[in-house]
Prior knowledge:
The protein is of the alpha/beta class. The protein is 35% helix and 14% strand. The chain is built from 15 helices and 15 strands. It has helices at 44-54, 104-116, 136-142, 167-173, 194-217, 227-234, 236-243, 279-288, 303-308, 310-321, 326-336, 346-351, 353-358, 393-399, 404-412, and strands at residues 4-5, 14-15, 35-38, 58-63, 94-98, 119-122, 147-152, 221-226, 262-265, 272-275, 340-342, 360-363, 366-369, 374-375, 378-379. It has a six-stranded parallel sheet, with helices on both faces. It has a three-stranded antiparallel sheet with strand order 9-10-11, with helices on one face. A two-stranded antiparallel sheet has the order 1-2. A hairpin with an 8-residue loop joins strand 1 (4-5) and strand 2 (14-15). Helix 1 (44-54) crosses helix 5 and helix 5 (194-217) packs across helix 6 (227-234). It is elongated. It starts with a strand and ends with a helix.
Amino acid sequence: MPDEWTGGHDGEPVPANGPAWPAGGYRNGPLAGLKVLDLSRILAGPFATMHLADLGADVIKVELPGRGDETRHWGPPFGPDGTAAYFTVANRNKRALTVDLGSPPGAAIVRRLAVAADVVVDNFLPGRLARFGLDPDALRTANPRLVTCTITGFGSDSDAAGRPGFDFLAQAAGGLMAITGAEDGVPTKVGVAIVDLAAGLFATTGILAALRRRDHTGQGAHVEVPLFDSVVGLLANQAANWLVGGVEPAPMGNAHPNIVPYESFPTADRPLALAVGTDRQFARLVAVLGVPELADDARFRTNADRVRHRRALRSELTARLAAAPRSVWLDRLDEAGVPAAPVNSVPEVFADPLVAQRLLVEVDGCPQVRSPLRLDGQPLPVTGPPPALGRDTDAILTGLGLSAGEIGRLRSAGVV
């Protein structure tokens, strides 16, 4: 790709490494001053860059003119402006630029931003960005301090590098579906795109680690997070059950393979969840249920005993819990120090005063679940809603030194 594009001042070429990062995105926070160029779409990459934005980074989200991120259209439901609700979960606190990476002028604009950036995040298939001169190697050659991050499906150095990555496919191929769902039921995906979300968090961690190393060496780095690797890493104790114990995990509904009782139970009205992790907690549980002798029963004395006799114990507990409604049991269990919780619907979650107090916030009419992080007791601010498509394009290009006329010509040509 050329290193310059025609259409600059008075028709002169504008160097690709021209003006510095455009002003206008200053935010407070521990990452204030960090400049992030977000070339990613869908969920994993935008989720990572949103967390950086929540922490104070200035994030410019780049989207295709006229269409934007695919998730803007993944509805219903849609917001008042026609943007799908899905888009709002991973794009707050960002600035929005539309530019066609496939055009030489568009690629040049993005290169100029990358030269001035600290971080560039993408989730293109391996080799795709190289067509535009925007691959991580090219960008880090132009800006050695740059940290690049690519989220892939199956790893750029694997035999499956060219396969597209989707959360559902990763859950299937990575074994998560095989351990999720009802006992003796069909393999089932998790109810949210958990692999995308986890990959986004892994990416955030990797980016911050690379930035920390840059502080010492002055050199950037490339971070790669495959969805497939992420889901295999999430198998955690289930992986160890197989690798260490030779036990093939299977779906168990809400039960836990290594801890009993650790699942949901019906009551006289609605289900509750028990998470009894110690023998002392188990003794308190059975005392609340009026059968303290079960704590000394040889079948249930230790957790290992309870795992071996889980069906018998489940039957005992189910019979006792059926004697009273959930609210009664939750009060008694809480008083006794037994970990328990209601099995809430999503509407019930957002009706919980604790959620309203700690997590729910609205900005410019758009409801948001704020970051769970707190720094020195303070929540991270939500200062901007997910931006309208291309909302900040003119301001960003003006910050790069383009005139209104130049921007108009680029827009007429479909570049921005």
